[in-house]
Amino acid sequence: MVDPGSPGRSTGPGTAPFVSVVLMASRHRDFVDEAIASIRAQSLPREEFELIAVCDFDDAGFEERLARSGGRSVHVPPGDIGPAIRAGLEAARGTVLTFLDDDDRMRPDRLASVAAAFRSDPDLGYLRNGYVIIDREGGSVPDPRFRSEERRNGVRVGAVTSTSDGWSHDRLRWPPLGLDFNSSSIAVRRAALDEFCRGRDLTGFILLDSLMFVAVLAGAGSIRFDPAPWTEYRIHGQNRSWNPQARTDPVAGRADFSRRSAESYARLARWAAESGSERSRVEAEGLLTAQQCFRALRDPTVRRSEFRRLRRAIRSQPTSYLLRSERLLPLALRVYSISPRWGRWLYTRRARAESL
After folding, report:
1. How far is CA 315 from CA 146, 205, 287, in A?
2. Low-confidence ranges of the chain (pLDDT < 70)
3. What angle do CA 126, 132, 133 make, to 5 degrees?
4. What is the mean pLDDT of the chain?
């Protein structure tokens, strides 16, 4: 473990950097050196950001490479992302906090752009940038169908910002932008995330990207989307699901994720309600409903009556931006309500087409 005051760090023990980068180093150790190299190559002056690697493994070689890059490590038990989120949050000293998954990369100007955005707008609480998709070897993937509508919408709409007062209007006019997706493309004011997570048990919680979005909604910060592709999001055989079936059966992989994430979505909705923020509660409950719908679509044992109930649940939440962003859900539930077998055949076709 690197001592915070060691020569490997560019920021002294009494100097707080503006940006804290938390590298979630866990399952994808084949790619983690690429992630570190992308952080080392940032154009933001080194004294303005810190690198913290939250690790669930011991590797002397990795520790040495991390130290040479000016980083320090924090260790957590393996197999649970919740304590890793907590450890990264507690170790971070910067005004702005951004996470990077160990299989993703930052483009060289990402941290400089993030720092400039937060410095220019004292009310900015949340920034989600665009991304490009890369494959296992790091090459760009031409015209991927994965979340293609959201990426096209981002380019078409351009950079947009919503204040806390304007969210009730903006959420009804913005197209689906995937605001709560891809933690490697999200930066937040650390204080907002710290306030939302204070006193909460994150054990077993697995939804880092959604957590950051809902946490800032619970505060008074503004939300910004910038389509600039400052992040490279890697799709490979292991990042869809921990279920080995995901490589050959994308529906099985998605079903496995639905089962594992159900409790986290429910906890996030409960925490948002407890925060007292209406915009946070509405979006967290909408997100929970959307994921309940996806779980039903992926479960061959669900009956027509449940699909009908879920259709009513969607209609009862017309103002949730995250729920409205899932534009195909009402149609899918209608098809499943008529014929679950026909609906599952169509869903399987779509899932296979989107898989890389």
Report:
1. 27, 28, 14
2. 1-14, 27-28, 237-248, 355-356
3. 120
4. 91
Task: Say how far apart CA 140 and CA 348 lie, in whole Å.
Answer: 26
Write down the residue that tokens 């925490």 correspond to. Answer: 271
Task: Return the DSSP state at 245.
Answer: G
What DSSP assignment string belongs to 222-236?
Answer: EEEEEEEEEEEEE--
For strands 96-101 and 71-75, give the pairing: unpaired
- Paired tokens of 275: 């925060």
What are the φ/ψ torsions at residue 101 (nearest 5 degrees)? -65, 150
**Torsion-angle region of 147 (φ positive above 0: left; ψ -120 to 50: alpha; else: beta):** left
Q: What is the CATH number of domain 19-234?
A: 3.90.550.10
Quick check: 171 and 319 in contact, CB under 8 A?
yes
Q: What share of the chain is helix, strand, coil (3-state, %, to 5)?
A: 50, 15, 35
Q: How far apart are CA 282 and CA 187, in angstroms?
A: 22
